[in-house]
Amino acid sequence: MTDIFKITLLYDKPCLPQFSGGWGLSFWIEYTNERILFDCGWNGDVLINNIKNAGLDVRSLTYIFLSHIHWDHIGGLMTILNQGLPNLKAVILPQAFSKHFKTEISYSAPLEEIVKSSTPCKIAQGIWSSGVMGDNIEEHSLLLKLANNQILIIAGCSHPSPTNFLESASTLGEVYGIMGGFHGFKSLQEFEHLKLIVPIHCTKKQSEILTKFPASSRLLKVGEEITL
Fold first, then answer.
1. Where are the domains of the chain?
2. C-alpha–C-alpha distance, residues 169 and 131, integer Å
3. Yes or no: is domain 5-227 CATH 3.40.50.2000?
4. H helix intervals, 34-98
């Protein structure tokens, strides 16, 4: 594969001056002809404005990926769906989401439900779900196969633990890095082999990660992008 992923942070608290911040998480991912919105933050109006300020076209979205049911990751969904998305192939979400919530989404978009599993589920070329994991809070991460055949993990909050996402991703190839929220994850030695670590959103040990892995870790502000 020779194609490039471009990943833009659209929702979090720290932001560039022309963007708005808030509690939640959302990434915009571009790869070949695919445009993926990973999670939708808390406030849909904030998300829409950040999309516009980033020079992105919401109507070009081909997938919306929801990591888990918490409002700071799904709150902006209906605002996005109400924009009219002619290219949207599916909203991808854990099968465990409530029946009423899935029915509400289905009025506006097709659904692709991911079952509970510790193995990846292919979404499109170069793009997988990790498989839905966890007991109290069921969650899955987005796995992207880079041009070097290594895998990048995009995580919402990592409620089931980054360990599970790392293990799932490793079945597809060497894991290049992980971006997103890690909550109180303590087994930081598991990040030692990674070339990219972006500990944002709910990550409690952010400072410790940045200190322990100065060459591979970095922060992102809303409006900033990474190209891989």
1. 5-227
2. 10
3. no
4. 44-53, 71-74, 77-81
How far is it, in rounded angstroms, from Cα 128 to Cα 122?
4
How far is Cα 165 from Cα 180, in angstroms, rounded to an integer? Answer: 12
**Mean pLDDT for the stretch of residues 44-61:** 98
Place of tokens 């079945």: 171
In whole angstroms, give the CA distance from residue 110 to residue 91.
6
The confidence score (pLDDT) of residue 1 equals 40
> β-pairing, 142-145 with 151-155?
antiparallel
pLDDT of residue 83: 97
Listed in sequence order, the residues at least 6 apart from 25 whose beta carbon sits closer than 8 Å to its beta carbon are 11, 12, 38, 39, 41, 72, 73, 156, 157, 180, 181, 200, 201
CA distances from 114 to 84, 94, 125, 140, 160 (A): 24, 5, 17, 8, 15
Query: Is residue 137 packed enough to be buried (19+ CB in 10 Å), middle (13-18) or exposed (0-12)?
Result: middle
Residue 189 is encoded by which pair of tokens?
A: 């030695």
Task: Say what the pLDDT of residue 2 is.
Answer: 47
Across the range 169-177, mean pLDDT stands at 98
- Position 3 scores a pLDDT of 75
